[in-house]
Every structure is written in C-alpha cells, then in structure tokens.
Amino acid sequence: MADTDSTTKAGGAAAGTVPAAPRPGLRMSVELPLWRALTGYRVLTLIYTCCLVASQYEKYVHPLGAVGYMAALTVWTALTWRHTTSAERCTRRFLAGDLTFAVGGILLTMVVESHERIMGGAATLPSICTAGSVLGFAIKGGWRWAMAASSLVAVANLVEREELAGNTIHNVVLVWVASVAIGYVVEVARDSERTLARALQIEAATRERERLARDIHDSVLQVLAMVQRRGAAIGGEAAELGRMAGEQEVALRTLVSGGLVPPPRAGAPATTAAPPVAAAVPEDAADGRCDVRALLAPYAGSGVTFSEPGSAVELPAHAAGELAAAVGAALDNVRVHAGEGARAWVLLEDEPAAVVVTVRDDGPGIPEGRLDDAEREGRLGVALSIRGRLQDLGGTAEWLSVPGQGTEVELTVPKGAPPEGRRGGKARA
Fold first, then answer.
1. Domain locations in the chain?
2. Is the separation of the CB atoms in 299 and 346 below 8 Å?
3. Which one of 87, 167, 266, 409 has the fewest beta carbons within 10 angstroms of its own beta carbon?
4. What is the mean pLDDT of the chain?
5. pLDDT at 370
6. Cβ atoms within 10 Å of 125's Cβ, excluding its own
7. Average of pLDDT values for 360-365?
8. In angstroms, rounded to a whole number, what is the distance separating the alpha carbons of residues 326 and 385?
9. Bridge partners of 359?
10. Rounded CA gap, 137 and 149, in Å?
C-alpha cells in the first residue's frame, strides 16, 4: 500500500510516485491469513468438541464435569476470539491462558472419564481444540515457542493416559511436528518480509537519488560550473570564489552519485586538510568497522580527484580514521609544497590482505634526501602525520618522487592485527 505522505515528502510533485517501504507495524500478507485460519479453526473445533462431548454424555463418570468444562471453554473462546485475528492482539497472556485451558482439560479427563475408557483410547475433553492453542504459539513466536507449547501438551497427554500407548504417541508427534513446521515457515516468511522491505527502501532511495541527480545536474551543478569558469576568467577574489564553487560542484556530484560525502561540520573551511580523527569517524562506527570511502570522499575537490572501488572498503574504525588523517596530511603537503595550481589524485584500492591508498600529484617533485633533511631539521609532518600513523597501524608509507614529474605516496594498512615490530615508511626519491 503506497504511503502518500512519505512519497510527497521524499520526492515532491516533480518526482512522480515513489514506492514507499512497508511500515514496521504492518504484518506481511502471508501471516494475516494464518491468523484468520486459526480463528476459524478454534470456532470449528469447539463446535466439533461440543458435539463429541454431547454424544458421549452418558458414558462419562462425571458428566456434569465434562459439561462444565465445555461451557467454560465456550465462554473463553467467545471472549477471546479477537485475540487470534492478528499478531498484535495475540498477547503472551492470552496464549498462556489458552494453553492452560487445553492442558487443564486434558488432565480433567482423568476425573470425568473412567480408567477403562481412558485406557481404551477415549478422546480427551478438549480433543482437537488443543492443537489451536499450540498453533497460536507457532504463529506468534515461531518454531521454538511451538516446541515448548507442544511439549507441555505431550506431557499432559502422557500423564492422562498413564502409559506410552501407540495412538497417544502418534497424536503427540503429529501435533509436535505440525506446530514446529508451521512455526518454522512463519519465521522464514518474516525473514523474507524484512528482506523485501529493505529492498523496497533501497529501490525507493535509489530512484529518489536519480531524480535528485537529474534535477541538480540541470540546475545547481550547471550554475556552480558557470561560477567556476567566470571566476577564473575574472581573477582576483572572484577566482577564489570560482575555486570554492568548483570544489562544491565535485562534492555535490559525489553526494548524488554515491552518497559518501558526510555532512560538513559547522564552520569548517573548504580545504583538503585532514579533519580530526574523532570528527572523521562516524559515531555509530566508533566501536566497529568503517567504510574508508566515506572518510576519503570529502577530500575530493576541484584540484583533487578521488577514485574508489564500487563496494565498501572496511577497516576498524580507528585504523580507517588514522588512514584518512594520513591522506589529509599528504594532500596538505601537495597544497603547501606543490603550489595552489597543482593537481592531486587519490586512488583507494581494496586488496585481499590490505587497504592501499595512493596519493599522486603533478608538482615539481621532492629532491633526493629532502625528507631526511626535513626530519633532522625538526619538520615532522611526514615523520609523524603520515609515517608515524602508518607504523602504529602496522602499515607502511612509501614515497616515490622524480624531480619535475611529481610525487607519489603509497599508504598501506593491513586488514588484520598489526604484527609486532613491523616498521613502515620507506622513502625513495
């Protein structure tokens, strides 16, 4: 059933109709017929059992006890029939009460029936009504609840019969297998419903993103591109405005295509500098794993091209944050040492044993021995911000630079635990 309000909010009038995912409160269509069938089963089996007791009235040792139980069962069924029309109405308290009536009726048979008739295979007072109680547990809670309820009914039947008679064992096994099978089918159907709901949500989000991408491409992105071109042509402060518009254009394209750009922090400048690790790692991933793509995507801009795999590249949250900070430090070096006009390329690769990020620029390159000289002079940007971070993670940081042809930094972080004593950070010029 389409949710008109949700569709209007998500896509607006221009989006057309976007299929809304099923609301969590609604049950799947396959479960509702089961509840209706259970309601009908309880009514029909009650009528059958009343007729059975009436036909056997004169054979009971205490016929008034049998009639009293059937009267109580009839009143209970009439008062509680709505409880089996949906999962929300079928509470645990009702299920416990219904099972109590069934088990109590089985045990009451020992009082109202003679021992000879019981040993001869006479039906219990609730007869096949007992199955309705067990099926309620199966539909509500799955096969585990069904197993527990049917086991209680089995114990009551064995106590009533006082021996392992063949027909008793047959009836007990039949109820047990049927209830467990139905409970298992219900669980599988519920899992399928959740999978379908998730697929519908993804489909709706994808269609909405495509619509937004079309609208943004026809309006916002074209305006930003025009501001970038005009600003570069005018020069001065307009050139800086054009550069910022270009960065926002790239970020917006990334957002509408992949949704990997996190919301910018209040007051954060538009720069390639590495954000603090605590701010870069999503809060919900602080104790788990994090997609490295989401942390590197914000570095993309008019002067930085970011290339990524099509699937998630996951690392422990701390390792992902440290790697992103190291990439930010490498891009800072590009901005400071290669000049404002230099371009940089960031390539993220997901290898079987490690995650590799390569940062390459088209700057003048690093003269041979310059990194070692900078470390001796106390300028520790490379030693601490990049090499130190990777060493702590058991990874490596390698520089390859040719004067006049730019610099390439390869950052490698192993996916497993950092081995003891591992060292990284070789520099080649």
1. 31-193, 263-428
2. yes
3. 266
4. 76
5. 54
6. 28
7. 83
8. 6
9. 346, 409
10. 7
Q: Cβ atoms within 10 A of the Cβ of 75, count?
A: 10
Output the 3-class SS for 47-92. Answer: HHHHHHHHHCHHHCCCHHHHHHHHHHHHHHHHHHHHHHCCCCCCCH
**201 burial via Cβ count (<10 Å: 0-12, 13-18, 19+):** middle
Instruction: Choose between 14 and 199: higher pLDDT.
Output: 199
pLDDT of residue 25 exceeding 70: no
Q: Are residues 98 and 84 in contact, defined by beta-carbon separation less than 8 angstroms?
A: no
Query: CB within 8 A of 211, min separation 6: which ones?
Result: 11, 14, 15, 16
Its sign, for the CA torsion 117, 123, 124, 126, is: negative
Min mean pLDDT across 112-116, 220-224, 425-429 is at 425-429
Range of weakest confidence among 33-37, 157-161, 245-249, 358-362? 245-249
DSSP state letters, 303-319: SEEEE--SS--EEEHHH
Q: Tell me the per-residue pLDDT of 127-161, one tens digit each, with 9 for 90 and over.
A: 888 888 899 999 998 889 989 998 998 888 888 88
Residue 343: what pLDDT?
Answer: 87
Q: Which residue has the tokens 């390569």?
A: 358
Specify the CATH class of 263-428 in words.
alpha beta
Residues 303/361, Cβ–Cβ less than 8 Å: no
How far apart, in whole angstroms, are the C-alpha atoms of residue 162 and residue 210? 70
Q: Region 66-84: what's the mean pLDDT? A: 92
- The amino acid that residue 408 corresponds to is E
Please give the full DSSP string across 113-159, using - where no structure is assigned: S-HHHHHTTPPPSSTTHHHHHHHHHHHHH-HHHHHHHHHHHHHHHHH
**Which of helix, strand or coil describes residue 345?**
strand
**Contacts of 276-283 spanning 24+ positions with Cβ under 8 A:** 276/325, 277/318, 277/321, 277/322, 277/324, 277/325, 278/321, 280/321, 280/324, 280/325, 281/317, 281/318, 281/320, 281/321, 282/317
Would you state the pLDDT for residue 371? 55
User: 419 falls in which pLDDT band (50, 70, 90)?
Assistant: very low
